[in-house]
User: Fold these one by one.
Assistant:
Number 1:
Amino acid sequence: MLELDGVRAGYGRTEVIHGVSLTVPVDGVAAVMGHNGAGKTTLLRAAVGLISVNSGKVLFDGEDVTTLRPSARVARGLAYVPQGQQSFGQLTTAENLQVVADGRKRGKELIGEALDLFPALRGLLERRAGLLSGGQRQQLAIARALITEPKMLILDEPTEGIQPSVVAEIERTIVALTRRGGLGVLLVEQHIGFALESAERYYVLESGRVTSSGAGGAAPESDVRTAVSDVRAAMAI
Ligand SMILES: Nc1ncnc2c1ncn2[C@@H]1O[C@H](COP(=O)(O)OP(=O)(O)O)[C@@H](O)[C@H]1O
Ligand SMILES: [Mg+2]
């Protein structure tokens, strides 16, 4: 479980996140929604340790990781796929996967498992990542993150700017991943329908504060339509 407790963070003297608390389940999705500039990416950076937290706590599996470096959090099972599908553009798909798998005992097996989840990548193994489409790059980025065998996967707008058919494929895979068990997902997502269907819990972020939260469609006895209308009201859309 990943838990943020009253987190304040920002850039230099500018505080962007003003005391956010949220919980990501051990198995399942917590979705964060909000307009551009609300602070979603900044919140994820604070959770991963890429920016420091001014006050409040980040807990992972009950351990206080607030001051741990990003690499130490990754070693504990946190994986982060930043917004914008970053991979090594000059390396092939296969090399991008291999770079992460190197030094891991189950490296080869993990690459196989990642390719099973994203079969479209199998036909692209020799292609340079820089030549992949946005959707393919996103799949590669998630596949790379999964090779680190995370307990918690943090995804920043995985379907942004991607053609609808591939969006559906990525969404299916995210849901399938959490159903396998043993993986929590903190998902920042603009597609409210998908976010709320897949999520156990949702949070709406506005100007660095949580202005609405509740049970998502994956929570027991919840009603996704109520959640959608609550979120639309909170976001004034
Ligand atoms: N590297 C940065 N340095 C200074 N301010 C930043 C930086 N990145 C983002 N911000 C500011 O933080 C606020 C939240 O941005 P961001 O977290 O990217 O929002 P979102 O992901 O919700 O669109 C914005 O006002 C943005 O201008
Ligand atoms: Mg963002």
Note: DSSP finds eight helices and ten strands in the chain.
Number 2:
Amino acid sequence: MIPGGPTAMTPPPSVPLAYLAAAAIGLFGFGFVAWFAGDKLVTVPNHPAAVSAVHMGVLAFLSVAVLGALHQFGPVVSNKRLRSVMAGRFTMVAMVAAGWLLPNGFAHGPEWMILAGGVSGAAAALVAAWNLSGPLSSRTGGVPILGLRISVTYLVLTVAFGVVYVLNRQAAWFPLLPNRVLAHAHLGLLGWLGLTYVSVAEKLWPMFLLAHRPGARSGKVAVVALGSGTLPLALGLLFSVAWLAMVGGALALVGLGAHLVSLASSVKHRRRPLEMLHAYLAASTLYLVIGIGFGVAAGFADVDTGTRMILVGVEVGALIAWLSLAVAGHAHKIVPFIQYTMLRSRGVDRHPSGRPLLFGDLYRKAPARATLVLLTVGFGLILAGMLTGSVPLAAFGGGSLGISGIVIGLNLAFGPRLAAGGPTPEPATAGRQA
Ligand code: HEM
């Protein structure tokens, strides 16, 4: 069995592949919105244009990709089907709608567009939680399943939080707390996206490296500490309760530290050589360390409010970079796994040269490397632009991310066509959930 690859329990390949294709378009949109918001990103990171760019990244790109991966991964790891394939397709449409409506609404209105995006995001999160509760209720699956139960709860919390203050923008029920954005951002980035990645990595890393680790305690610590620390961190930030934020922050740091120990242990005990995925992971890890550093600095440095805002902005940007590089790197594994099984079920098992078809035939290496460079450099330029106040750096960074979305989308979409030497076959559904 290939975790991430199709089994009798997984939905039709068109489900995860549609999410991942939409996520590549989301990455393209994220980059170009960041390009045009470059002047705001470097001067006022909480300007509506910057909030718009951030939501293209976290919703249209990352949440769509991560939800797609979960609709595949959950059934594979738990050996239990989704509650409904149709609901899986609905979640994709609703999250993509939220991912494009909200940012457009933030950037230029009208206000109803923000509300529509919020409602659509809430529908996506609730339906996903119900649908994934089938596989995630499994008693097997261990630490990854435990982590995913918590992370999907954080998705619902993040979206609920966002929707409440979108409604409050219109109704003004209560005065907005000054640190609300910090609380919402950490719930989403650490609790939802971060914890999902940390959980899934516990299955994927040992598998891709064929690593036989003596124990997986660091993985358990990562999931439990990050899962239990994010809520107190967010509440402490929201209500300005310093000790609570510090307890939550310390737990989150332990969790992220344990995640890094787990990566080091998988690499150390590997039986397969390192490959391109691990270059993605190295760049991703570098940004996680930068994000942690700037997060701690934003919490403790004795600086004025403007500087603190920049530090938080860089922390948020670096965390988005951590997750984006991880998602793009793993997409070069997961998408070919799914496509490979589709091709085999259509009777295509040979490369045009005549030799047996391999997973690695299903994408081109040069564009995959180009995607890595474009993402790493693009995020680096954005962060450098924020730190130095340089608009051109941030704008070029955004452009680089946008191009990476085009490159990865085309590379993974056309790979099977090129490898099989003909048109991409129809998805196979026999033996799978209808
Ligand atoms: C439908 C779902 C969502 C809604 C309605 C929503 C709404 C909002 C709103 C209204 C703000 C601006 C707050 C203000 O300035 O007063 C905001 C900021 C933010 N949100 Fe969301 N959000 C949603 C989902 C998410 C998710 C899933 C994440 C992360 C994974 C996220 C991360 C952030 C971040 C990082 C900021 C700060 C951006 C900045 O200051 O530049 N949001 N959100």
Note: The pocket of protoporphyrin IX containing FE is lined by residues 45-46, 50-51, 54-55, 58-59, 63, 98, 102, 118, 121, 158-159, 162-163, 165-166, 181, 184-185, 188-189, 192-193, 316 (CB under 6 Å).
